[in-house]
Write a structure and sequence with these properties.
Elements lengths: L1 H10 L3 H12 L7 H7 L5 H13 L3 E4 L8 E4 L8 H5 L8 E9 L2 E8 L4 H13 L8
Antiparallel strand pairs: 1-2, 3-4
Length: 142
């Protein structure tokens, strides 16, 4: 799971990050608030927890949300099925598998070409479809 991998990577960066990673890992599937993590490990400063959550955001497993309008500062995990950010997709090279080139006529005069692994799984196809759906475009422009 991406969440667990990110927590493990950051835990290796020092004792304080390990404490925070352990606490957040034990919290389950919800979105942890800074104050809830601080309650679990009161010896860790709030600033360190915020720094950790911002590093998790850099790992692209979710987003650090600054508290506003009575909502606490928190980390919102990227849910399963949420489109993977383009940078994360680019960091997933195809290694050790045969590749197939697929051509798709998107519209007259425009053909899209995809280079995909020969053993593309349904999960990978879903991720690719989510990525395409997440591409920015202007609605109503033909």
């Amino acid at each position: 799971m991406v969440k667990d991998e990110a927590l493990r990577r950051l835990a290796e960066e020092g004792r304080v990050f390990k404490q925070i990673a352990d606490a957040m890992g034990a919290m389950g599937p919800g979105n942890p608030t800074v104050s809830h993590v601080r309650q679990m490990i009161p010896t860790v400063e709030r600033l360190e927890i915020v720094k950790f959550m911002k590093r998790l955001e850099a790992e692209e497993v979710g987003k650090f949300m600054v508290g506003r309008r009575r909502k606490e500062s928190r980390f919102e995990w990227r849910e399963a099925g949420t489109p993977v950010p383009p940078t994360a997709v680019m960091r997933s090279p195809v290694v050790g598998s045969a590749r197939l080139e697929h051509r798709f006529v998107l519209r007259p005069g425009f053909e899209a070409t995809l280079l995909l692994p020969q053993d593309l799984t349904p999960t990978e196809a879903d991720r690719l479809a989510s990525f395409v759906r997440a591409l920015p475009f202007e609605r109503g422009v033909a």
